[in-house]
Design brief:
With about 425 residues, this protein is an alpha/beta fold. The chain contains 14 helices and 19 strands. It has 2 domains: about 280 residues, Alkaline Phosphatase, subunit A (3-Layer(aba) Sandwich); about 110 residues, 2-Layer Sandwich (Gyrase A, domain 2), CATH 3.30.1360.
Amino acid sequence: MPRKLFVLSLDGTPYTLLKDALERLPNLKKLFAQGTFVQMDSVIPTISSVAWATFATGVNPAQHNIFGFVDLDPHRRFVIPNARDLGACPLWQRFSKLGLRSIWINLPIAYPPDSINGIMISGFLCTQLDEGVYPPELLPLLHELKYIIDADPQRAQTDPDGFLEELFLALEGRRQLTWYLLEREPWDFFLLHIMETDRLHHFFWEAKDEPHHPYHQDFWRFYRELDSFIGELVARLPQDCELVLLSDHGFCEITYEVELNVFLRERGFLRFANGTPADFSELHPESRAFGLIPGRIYLLENSERTRAELITALSALTDPQGRAVIARIYHREEIYSGSQLARAPDLIAVPHNGFDLKARLSAQKLFIKTHLQGMHTFDDAFLFVRNHRLIPQPKPRLIDLAPTLYTLVGLRIPDEFEGRSLL
Ligand SMILES: [Zn+2]
């Protein structure tokens, strides 16, 4: 039998944030002294759906088929991809086939829940708890625990105090559920996902380092709460269980949100057939390109000239203060390979930290500041593995997690996995 493994995933928690805050987080400090705590690279584009799909399948987007939080159907209307769209086998199915019992709580891409050998409770892609629980017999318990899938991000703008309160309630629900399942359910693999860190960072990032910011105390009160939860979790886990903590990306402060489709319109690449388009089914025939968040660009004609023109224009884009916006532009073939490559964006623009690439159809201004304070970063995710040394070079990547977890518990690594074991 393989060894037991518990994975705690903290959405969007940066390596540097934890490293610099360990003095205030005694349980994490103690835990991190018992293993390897390193910085990790995420995925491109750096978005939770793509990142956790990569984690859960061990393959790149052109194989697992999740390219962003939103995607387009064949008529170019918006869809939100979920586990049904996965083009590769996720770990929950692999474990089930191996006869292993696994528990999955709140992982973003894990919706709808699968009838696996084990338990699945979906993450934020699920909007109704009733539709996100396998087996459904667990629903009354979740209601009793006042379990919520996600704090309501809409509320962050209108009622930040209420939103903060929801973050604490969401964490408390996961804590109660985890204790309940740890006491009663057998498992070989247990993953608990905390979404609240990502939410906290999107809406309260500026409070992190500003002692006089009205939410500074609350920001760190959340991390202390999380730290005490982790301390108790470690104490409740079986002694011989392997333990991994990780995040899917880092975070930094937003300088500007940059509206990609405004840019494409202003430069003559994009035109809509009417003034207020609902989606990309209403493109003017002369349109040559359009964008989806974050930084995904689709060409409507396969012309080298358009591609080159677009790369030149994007590379030269600067903000009102003259700072370069785009750090790198990839052709899809440079970073993706697999059977779904034709569905990938033609170009993927990666911004410099601080420039959050948006693609709202209704946007009028190229550079804006909204209530959003934090944005994802590629190079500052973290990984911690208890009781093991990790191969230090080259830098770990999220795609390396699937083979690493297999090695950790003593399973043979499937040939399909594209990463390498870090052990
Ligand atoms: Zn994320």
